[in-house]
Amino acid sequence: MMPLYPVINKNTGETKELSMTISEWEKWKEENFKDGWDRNWSEGCASACEVGEFKDKLRTKHPSWNEVLKKAKKSGGMNAKMDTL
């Protein structure tokens, strides 16, 4: 997942959110700053985060993850307390 960059055109007030790599962002800034585009700091910093609990996402993407943890615990490969997802 790439970072999201909220931007605003200071001339028109138009806003949008860009999803790109840092190097693409640097190039986009250089090309568009003269046209009035800048970071919209009122929207916060660049983010690659998603809303939601990581355990729910892990469970959805990898439904057998708990079984892997249980097998690792039985084999002695895990010394820490295991919380099931």
Q: Helix fraction?
A: 25-40%
Number of strands: 3
How far apart the termini lie comes to: 23 Å
* Low confidence ranges: none
Percentage of β-strand residues? 15-25%
Give the mean pLDDT. 77
Count of DSSP-assigned helices: 3
Order of strands across the main sheet: 2-1-3
- The coarse overall form would be elongated
Largest beta-sheet details: 3 strands, antiparallel
Domain module count: 2
Structural class estimated from helices and strands: alpha+beta
Overview of the structural elements:
It is a single chain. By secondary structure, this protein is α+β, with helices and mostly antiparallel strands. The protein has three helices and three strands. It has helices at 22-32, 54-61, 65-74; strands at residues 4-9, 15-19, 37-39. The protein folds into two domains: 1-47; 51-78, no CATH class. The model has no long low-confidence stretch (mean pLDDT 77). Helix content is 34%, strand content 16%. The protein has a three-stranded antiparallel sheet with strand order 2-1-3, with helices on one face. The radius of gyration is 21 Å and the shape is elongated. The two termini are 23 Å apart.
